[in-house]
Amino acid sequence: MFAPKNAFSGFSVNDLDAAAAFYRDSLGLAVADGGMGTLRLTLPGGAEVTIYPKENHEPASFTILNFAVEDVEAAVDALNERGVVTKIYSDGDLMGGMGTDAKGIMRGHGSEIAWFKDPAGNVLSVIAA
Fold first, then answer.
1. Among the listed residues 9, 8, 10, 21, the one whose alpha carbon sits nearest the alpha carbon of residue 118
2. Residue 33 burial by CB count (10 A; 0-12/13-18/19+): exposed, middle or buried?
3. Within-domain flag for 4
4. Can you point out the beta strands (E) in 20-104?
5. Global pTM?
6. Cα 80 vs. chain centroid, distance in angstroms?
7. CATH code at 67?
8. 2, 43, 47, 49, 64 from 6: Cα distances, Å
9. Is 1 contained in some domain?
10. pLDDT tens track for 58-93
């Protein structure tokens, strides 16, 4: 019988120290030693994600984490102030030929959303809650 007690997700990075600093210092999330050379990232709401080092890491070609926020523009401003670049897509780069504005926010196609990358090149987003 399949009866899991819990579930969690994970993703790889090429530099665990850089990942720890980014998620802790730039995003303000709780980062702890996950054992066996991994990190445990606690997300808003309490879910946990495992970050593990991978020598031949290749960044995910899709969004691996979405952070729901009340105000995407304010979140983008706060990220930019911390040195996080949000404009990673241009017109036509997104599905259906959509693009983002000068701040990197896609508007007018459902929820406002802006994407950014972690130091390993994995794609993250802030999206209107």
1. 21
2. exposed
3. no
4. 30-35, 38-42, 48-53, 63-69
5. 0.90
6. 14
7. 3.10.180.10
8. 12, 15, 10, 12, 19
9. no
10. 999 899 999 999 999 999 999 999 999 997 777 666
